[in-house]
## 1
Amino acid sequence: QIDLENSKNSGLIQVQTLLKDIDGISFVNFNEKDIVRHDLVKYIIKAYSQNEFKTD
């Protein structure tokens, strides 16, 4: 799960790059459309992704 403000520094992205060519290892990427929890969770995640008042 990547929920860091600057996802470029995420260890998960580094791992995907390092391990992408190893047989038996795969990665699945999800977005807000894949969330199957309560609809409010979708709205909250969408609001955060569109937030123009992000802090540094």
Note: The chain has one domain: 7-49.
## 2
Amino acid sequence: MALQTACASSKGVRRSNPDFNQRERLRKDRHAVRGQKVVYGRASYYGADFHGRKTANGETFDMNAFTAAHRQWPFGTLCKVTNLQNGKSVVVRVNDRGPFVEGRIMDLSYGAARELGALKDGIIPVRIEILRWGEDKAK
């Protein structure tokens, strides 16, 4: 009888919702700070319109190089970026600031986006692993 009562009364029991848990993890990881090793979020890319212009660290932007923009990470930070849709990865170096669009954690150069197979979609879900923190020195 006690077993029936225990099984029949499931009020107050919270079940894990994997979709909610994943969204919550992505929300928390959206803006990484120094010291974190892996973050998840959405990345976009930029290219021809900025090719040849100065980046935030003073370099000339080369749309075919494997570089990226991040709002906070130190210049020179090396990251392994993985496209979660197809598993392709590329190592990029942070040399610019951005993206300045809500919901995106990184802007990739055209070359990096091409390597990741992201040109068609434009915005992709990514896993970013910090390989080495930069020293934040502008040129």
Note: Helices lie at 2-8, 18-29, 110-116.
## 3
Amino acid sequence: MQIGGGECVTAGEDGRVNVVGAGEGRMEHRRIHDSNGLASYTAARWGSPAEFATGGVGFGVRWWDQRKPEGLVAQFKGSWGGGGITGMVHSIDIHPSRKHICIVGGSSGTVFAWDLRWQQQPILLSGVGLNGTDQPVSESEVWEVQYDSYTQSSGITSAPSTKILPVMVCSEDGILAVLEQGEDPVELLAEPCAINAFDIDPQNPSDVVCALEWESMAILSRGRDMVAIQ
């Protein structure tokens, strides 16, 4: 769903990309793309009122612009090191001040940044690297990724546009962590069950609400004395 807007982008396993909006009391539907079963989508995120990103199998990521006749303007096929990568994208996030960079999370603990200025040079934050080395924050599915406004609040204005801002992730093996380019991961929670989703309080970004596998929730309050309540 668009932030502050009235349109929703849907991208499904059937390979269809649609934009649905509510106008004058009725639903409006626009088909942006139909891959006819040749591609499958598992995640989507708005980048601007006219642009959005989708992700799918093979860690493929695509950038779409509704103002363009064909819609699709850029794509990354996940062919790192000359070979295909198995797995799929589960989550995408785009920072409002850096819309040229997508953060992508998916299978096997993989988290990477995709910069539209260098479309075939992803920046790996966790997972199997370009040289084959294994450095995941998690060894299972990364269900959600979000830019961490709490960690980045002090340095966002001075950071160069090429630097990847800190990212929070949660995983199937119960890890909630913050990843920062060039730094060791900071583990915030390690639960005995999956952390399926989380949200960072936009008004008080030190607080994080997590949805756990066993129909339960965890509330994390960061600060001088970090506290987790379940």
Note: The mean pLDDT is 85.
